[in-house]
Write a structure and sequence with these properties.
Length: about 250
């Protein structure tokens, strides 16, 4: 697939801040190290600070992201129980009343109804993630994942603030050590969860759909594993850059 070289593509990128068990969130570590531009006329609009792991501040921020009129929005979060990078297909508008954010607040059923009442229970991105992942695999084939060492070496996690509770509980022992192994380093997924990762994904797709003719939701969510060292974060930056390039190429070819 040939890279897009004519029009400028504006890609918004965000990362999350610390939460229980994750004092240095690698999603913000990656986002904050991205350049302002990439080859093939890609302009990166990196939000200048991390998104707090709290529902109400996040909901307030989402419209400001889209005030910049990005062609693609990419939100990044951590899934500490995984050893791979994954783009998520769908998110849902309900279920955020169970696990509080770092401020101790939930997003109640009544608030969910007030914010998104008439909208579908699930939103799926308008981006072709299957084609994107195929291209992403090509672009990352030369990267050295060995620099991650054991990869997503898990820290003890407070499950009250876990990013995706079913996934975390499945992938962790009671001592908080990862017991999962994965063959693929980059992949498609449909398990964004109902914590802040799913919340920002749904809110961002709803906001972009509201603003665009035909309700195009050119939004993606990237889950990254725990990355503990500067070398691992650098690998995460390279993987994310490759994903952005793949998203732009695939979008431009459709």
């Amino acid at each position: 697939m040939a890279p897009i070289t004519s029009a400028i593509t504006r890609v918004l990128v965000t990362g999350f801040g610390p939460f229980g068990g994750v004092p240095d969130n690698p999603s913000w570590g990656i986002a904050s190290r991205l350049p302002s531009a990439l080859p093939s006329n890609i302009e990166l609009l990196v939000h200048p600070s991390y998104v707090p792991v709290s529902y109400h501040p996040t909901l307030d921020l989402v419209p400001t992201f889209h005030d910049q009129s990005p062609d693609i929005a990419l939100h990044i979060g951590v899934a500490a129980g995984r050893k791979y990078f994954a783009v998520e297909q769908t998110s849902q508008k309900s279920g955020y009343e169970w696990v509080p954010g770092v401020d101790g607040e939930i997003f109640t059923k009544e608030e969910q109804q007030a914010a998104w009442g008439p909208l579908p229970e699930k939103y799926s991105t308008s981006l072709d993630l299957h084609a994107t992942v195929a291209r992403w695999k090509e672009l990352t084939s030369g990267l050295s994942f060995s620099e991650r060492g054991s990869g997503a070496r898990a820290k003890p996690v407070d499950v009250r603030f876990s990013d995706e509770l079913p996934d975390m509980l499945a992938n962790f022992t009671t001592q908080g050590q990862s017991v999962t192994t994965q063959d693929d380093e980059v992949k498609w997924s449909d398990a964004v969860g109902t914590y802040l990762c799913g919340f920002i994904y749904y809110a961002s797709m709803a906001e972009m759909g509201k603003r665009n003719t035909g309700e195009q939701r050119n939004v993606a969510f990237l889950h990254v594993p725990s990355l503990d060292t500067e070398e691992q974060i650098k690998v995460g930056v390279d993987v994310t850059v490759a994903l952005i390039q793949a998203l732009v190429e695939v979008k431009g070819s459709t």
